[in-house]
Amino acid sequence: MASVEPNYFTCTLGQAAQLKRQHGASKWKTVLELIDHQAQNIPDSPALGFATFKHLKSSQVSPYFLTFQSLSESSKHAAQILSQLLPQPKSSSHMTIGLLAASTTDFVLTWLGLMRLGYTVLLLAPQLAPPAITHLCQTLHITQVLVDKMYKHRARGLDNRIDVTMIPRYHPADPSTASFKQADKISDTAYICHTSGTSSGLPKPIPQTHFGVMGALYNFPGQGKPATFSTTPLYHGGFPDCLRSWTSGAAIWFFPEGHAPITGSNILKTLQYARDKSPSPIQYFSSVPYVLQMLSEEYGGVEILQSMDLVGVGGAALPPAIGDKLVEADVKLLSRMGSAECGFLMSSHRDFANDKEWQFLRPIDDPKLISFEPRDNGLSELVVKPDWPFLIKKNRQDGSYATSDLFEPHQSIKNAWRYHSRADAQITLGNGKKFDPSPVEDSILASSKALQDVLIFGGGRDYAGALLFPTGNVSSGEVIDSVWPQIERMNSESQSHAQITKAMLIVVPVKEGEKALEKSSKGTILRRQAEERYAKEIEGAYEHRKSSASKVVSDGELAQADLFKQGVDSIACIQIRKLIEQSFLSPRNEPLPLNVIYDQGTANGLIKYLHDARQGGHHHSRSARDTDIKVMQNLVEKYSNFGEIKAVSGRQPGKAVLLTGATGFLGAHILDILRNDSQVDKIYCLLRANDPSAAQKRVSEALTQRGMHDLEQSEQSKDKVVCLPCDLTEINLGLSDDAHKDIINNVGTIIHSAWAVNFSLHLPSFEDQIISTRNLAALAAQSGARFIFVSSIAAVSDSKAKPIPETLSQDSSEASPLGYSRSKWVAEQICDALNKKADSDDAIATVVRVGQLCSNESGVWNVTEAYPLLLSTAKITGCLPNIPNETLNWLPVEQAAQAVIEVSRSDQKPDNGKSSKTPVYHILNPHTTPTWTEMLDWLSSSIGTPEFEKVSPREWIKRLEKALSERSVGHLAQALLELWKESYGLMMDDVVTTKTTDDESPFDVERTREVSATIRDVQSLDRERLIQTWKWVNDTFKS
């Protein structure tokens, strides 16, 4: 994309060097020369303001606003006052003095006044502990520290050899009567800042020359420039913002530290105050990530950011979700990266209307100034070259500075780089794999208001974990539930060694008034101290995991228990498989199958399999067809006994509906239709949660993620939708007695849409889903409600019948081999067993088999579905497979939801004369057009979406494997690679792509057409919906 012209807010030192070569440099050589020059040439132009929005007596504060002339005169007055308190520095070498104060007008005047007296000033961050301040003072031979009232307590623990002097009260209106000799040279130090001490806990001083902080900048000509508002304190990078403004004759306003706490509400107040008082418009906003996060959550916060010409963020990584939210709201967000060692390096200043990639920094395209040197995993290290205008740290013989900052390149934008991690701040696992914990901690922390801090651990261990520090009195379960969706998303996009399992989430209570983690002055975690402080909790996490594994192996009952039910999730499966390959199998053994843990099902099954593998035995899965068919029949027999259930006679007249699966793709759309339906007066949503509030939050998030109003925004939902936490495996569904009774008395229809959609699990892992179906079916019998079981066409997809009828299957081999499919077949049989037991004219239970669903009318699909994941690979491969003989018989999800409701309201008559009493309906799209090839033609011709090449499936697999292996971060498509290789990897390059499939649907839908107008009138997928879906895929999946 075309570059954009810089301004004083975005101009890096590299750009400044180019501009100065073209237009010449400014004449001033020191900060004081700059101030005095501007005071002489633009005396009445605004220079500095502090937005002290609260009314205070005039004697209590310094002026809120200074012009360049008043700034110059006031600094001379401050120098005169200070000269009466401090010893004169020696002329031969400047004396260094410490400044520990709040970010106020007095801070600026003290700094300038001390420089006029010939002092070098160390800017001390108030967050430093007294030992750290003493260490800096000893390093720089400082014997004098100036402090203000706000931070006087910080000086009490200093070494007694350090004199502490209170900053005097200035009266800037009084004219200065003294003159000062100012002989500072350009090499002299303007001030000294310091590192945060993140790794060692002890900060190191970093001197800043006048040239570095001001001389390397470009003086943008002209007057009337927009002013900047900064939330960054002066001691934390506020002065670079100051001097960027002042060199170009612009003003800067600051949040008034100590005047009010920095909250979202107060930031809005100070901004409004500053805009009211400022002679020049405030159009630039400079901040750190946590400020933008506060504003993104504050009422009116996004709107005020939208009003800015530029919103800059730096100092740490902004969580991607926050940045994406702001950019989607048309906030002109740019990341800015710089350091005390090199100054302002680069930013993501760009064409905001056409380029939304706010995370990707755009460095100056000059290899003599900056380069990116390739490292492992597709990353590159930023190296600042000797010709860079300001470079006070060098670590190579050629005079360059290797920063240890690792970046990843943009897939299509030239010379655009996204920060990835620090090469020297990564956690190194026991297997040598590395990852940066900071972005992970930031993302988890940003995802939940129940947290005050997060610490990732795992150095030297086989896998990582996280300590979660809650805010207030929040239960461990609630904390983990609040962060788990975000961790799952991160796991899906991370390399396997950086993924975190739920078992390794440890909640650590924090005493009231106590800080969970010690942090540096920049807010970064002092990791070594934290790991020492919580060594017991970290060790306990690994011991618990180890003892749990030992207990499973030694306990006969647990050793036979299903691993999935014991909490072994897909991430744990990857970790276990890799650990086994590294420590148990020899190099001559074949690699373990990807799904070996779930395939073996139990600890004993896995042990037997590994024993055979070490002996060179065949690596066949335990889930042989005959074994699973026997398991299916056993499960049907086990859960079809409704002997104790007494079905009520007649049908429940209630207008309430009980719905499970409301957070799922289909369930959320069913809920949305029901809450707008006048025939329904209440909807009970049962789901896993700690309490009703958490349940409601999960349902609301599920709705908004799919483009629908949440429960609070929708007037129809406020009283109509009741979200209840439950455990469907318990007889009373884990409900309170009152809630259970309320449901029995009022619910006329139960729609059971909840199911674990995991195609890696084998059949026994779905036993809880089967128990839940049995319990809900029993509830329907007891209450007289209709029970609608949402099954899948996969339950009968291996049937040899053509078309497959809308009847209950009597042959368990008709289910596809997946555990998911077979569990649905078992649940259908349980529904039939209930109907036989009831022996009623109306069937209690009805089965609806749902086919392949697709996006809603807004184009929103499930990010974990195979088809949208496949389409998303175009971004990383530049191609899509031209799959032959593939028809798109997909049914839009909102139409499927409507059809389920229509079936639930039809007469549920048993099939007389047939072996089954259970009505079965097929909710699917019976059309066999369009084809996959037609869809690719439509997508490739759409405007404003990425271009892609149409290739053979085998070539696509080849490119996808290569792209995934070269990525520094994971991609959701990784999970389905093996499935796609099995399905498409053997298709030849010269395969014929003409349509050879039957024109008729393989599934009968005549019965459904009789009761569902939606299925009766359903049309083939059209171009418009598929284009809308394609746009959603490209907006949702990152490259």
TrEMBL record:
Domain AMP-dependent synthetase/ligase: 36-355
Gene3D superfamilies: N-terminal domain of ligase-like, NAD(P)-binding Rossmann-like Domain
Sorted UniProt keywords: NADP, Phosphopantetheine, Phosphoprotein
InterPro entries cross-referenced by the UniProt entry: Adenylate-forming_Reductase, AMP-dep_synth/lig_dom, ANL_N_sf, FAR_NAD-bd, NAD(P)-bd_dom_sf
Protein name according to UniProt: Non-canonical non-ribosomal peptide synthetase FUB8
Residues in the signal sequence: none
Annotated ranges, domain Thioester reductase (TE): 659-899
SUPFAM superfamilies assigned: Acetyl-CoA synthetase-like (SSF56801), NAD(P)-binding Rossmann-fold domains (SSF51735)
